[in-house]
Fold these 2 entries.
Entry 1:
Amino acid sequence: MLREAFPLIRASSPALLERLCRGRGLELWPQFISGPEEEALLRDVEPGLYRKHYQRDHWDQAIHGYREMEKSRWSVQSESILQRLRDVAFPPGVPQLSMVHVLDLEKTGFIKAHVDSVKFCGDTIAGLCLLSGCVMRLLSEDNDVDQVDLLLQQHTAYILRGEARYRFSHQVLPDEESFFGGEKVPRERRISIICRNLPHEPGSELD
Ligand SMILES: O=C(O)CCC(=O)C(=O)O
């Protein structure tokens, strides 16, 4: 993780920050992609997204104001960007989901606190942030104290592993709550592109 990432993480205590970042449980890579790389990724995902409608009606769902798809075929340029993300996120040989998750949140969209199901995702979540910044909040599943806010700027890559993935929920704040250290982080339409590894085999310590 780059040193300049630290001002982009606000934890409820220095000890928590140290614990989550040690062992690379939490990583931010600001400016992981360039503007032209973002454009290449958008060229790949926009046609598929435009065919879908934003989902807004189901208030019991974790995500509001979104459309999404799973994508396995990418241009050569996008494939090399995704490979760069996979190379920093996953050790060699770790089995990964071949389908990449593309999530398009409209300006008023948001993601409620949730922990990704262990049935569908292994120990690592690696995302790229396109079009807009946002605040991602991690909340401890074990107490009411431990909390981390991540300033996910446009072009940032983030990685949640281990404790940050399993013992903390994550959420993307709605525009009206989108503040980082008291500063407004305006929300626009945001697309995230997320790579995950395969869930653990039955019989592993997580079952
Ligand atoms: O949009 C993001 O970066 C996070 C998406 C998310 O929380 C999820 O797909 O579980």
Note: The helical segments are 14-21, 35-50, 76-89, 162-166.
Entry 2:
Amino acid sequence: MQRRKFLSLAGGGVVLAATATFGTIATRQPTNALAPWGDAGALYQEPRRRALSYAILAPNPHNQQPWLVDLSIPDKVVLHVNRTRLLPHTDPLNRQITIGLGCFLELMVMAAAEDGYAVDLEVFPEGADITALDDRPVAIATFRQESGTTPDPLFAHVMQRRSNKEPFDTTRKVEPETLAAIQTAARHGSRIAGDVSDSGIAALRKITTDALIVEIETPHAFKESVDLFRIGKAEIEANPDGIDFSGPMFETLGALGLMTREGTLDPTSTMFAQGKAAVLENAQTAMGHLWQTTTGNTRFDQIDAGRDWVRLNLAATAFGVGMQPLSQALQEYPEMASHYAQIHQMLAQEGETVQMLCRLGYGVAIGPSPRWPLEAKLI
Ligand SMILES: Cc1cc2nc3c(=O)[nH]c(=O)nc-3n(C[C@H](O)[C@H](O)[C@H](O)COP(=O)(O)O)c2cc1C
């Protein structure tokens, strides 16, 4: 284990990595957990299920996949939130969970259009609480066969879309024209802005790093991420969600007990210190930033923000640009209040809410993240 080193961050959590290889355990990939990526569009004939098989690939906070779907009414998809999959410490108002549900709905609508179905969406038809999601439907979607439905060119990138949690190449700039082209993908009313200038990159690297430090040094917030670590194939296959660490290094470290949730949480441990350093280093490889603001901050605005977020992520994919949300400074828990105020001062116009902020850059190609199959999400 002499060559071991800590590498990177995922979802606000810490990653321990090693370059050691240990024979067969090093090659174990979580195949079942990745199967939904191969099954999308291939497993079902029924139009709603076909569209949903793509929707479950949506980006969402900590890969909690908080969707629950009721298909009992013909031609309708009734979407609920699974309240056991919220993130109460870092997302106390469920704003980010709602954004993830918006990403889900957008992919569902896009996939339906590919099959010639228009979808009428009623969002929060029974109303919503802005402080906490409840059991009322998030959306009722009605599928209607329609000749002349226009497919969305962004749909072509659904299978390659990722949240790239690896360091970006700091020798390769993101051109302003590329940033501008990505920004045009939004359709649902968010204001999209970005910055690839040296001064902008420096300022946002600093605040995103500072906010990450707050998260890591706030035990209840950090624990929420670390509790969702899935280390190695067996854990990922058992729970294909959360913050997954697969591949030779993590398989080995997990098997040897050198990467544990307990160790990562202990602020006196080497695991904690090195992991923290790696996390911060990742934010420091940003080669630009993109953000999304809304004038209101209702549940409707949050769903629309999610719909636009996945479109931006797909557009970046089309240009080969990596994106990693860095959400820490946008979070509404007390310990983050000064960073929340600061980021709003930097990025928001009068009265706006910053819904998403990400770093941009060119990174290594990464594989898809685990998903629960659609069947696990039907009620
Ligand atoms: C509202 C929202 C907030 C997110 N915040 C972060 C974040 O702070 N850090 C991060 O690495 N990823 C973040 N993500 C990305 C998710 O971790 C990612 O979508 C999920 O793990 C699934 O991976 P995939 O997008 O590659 O399919 C966020 C995603 C959403 C929708």
Note: Residues 9-32+162-361 form a domain with the NADH Oxidase fold (CATH 3.40.109.10).
